Amino acid sequence: MGEVGIIYKILPRDLEIDVNDLSKRIEENLKNICNVKGVQIKPIAFGLQAILMFVSIKDEGNASEIVEQKIREVEGVGEIDIEEMSLL
Questions:
Q1: 9 φ, ψ to 5°?
Q2: Cβ-based neighbour number of residue 18 at 10 Å
Q3: pLDDT tier at 63 (50, 70, 90 boundaries)?
Q4: Class (C level, CATH) for 3-87
Q5: pTM for the whole thing?
Q6: Where are the domains of the chain?
Q7: Closest Cα partner for 59 from 51, 67, 69?
Q8: Considering only CA atoms, which of 56, 63, 85, 72 is closest in space to residue 22?
Q9: Where are the strands (E) in the chain, listed by range?
Q10: Is the pLDDT of residue 1 over 90?
């Protein structure tokens, strides 16, 4: 079985949340589920910043849903979108 690479776009719940701290807490929550390969903080507009997180996980049935659920468990996470997904 191969691996899937997924780029998640994660928005904080509000502007006052430190996105660097939030990304570290998300990485910590994901460490037993998947491999975080890279994180980028991207300005969106009006002070809002998004976290682009590239993860790899085994290609199994509901892998992306499991990762997304673990991300949502982190306090301060607002919206989550999958920007890109492909086999590695």
A1: -105, 115
A2: 12
A3: confident
A4: alpha beta
A5: 0.92
A6: 3-87
A7: 67
A8: 72
A9: 3-12, 35-45, 48-58, 77-87
A10: no
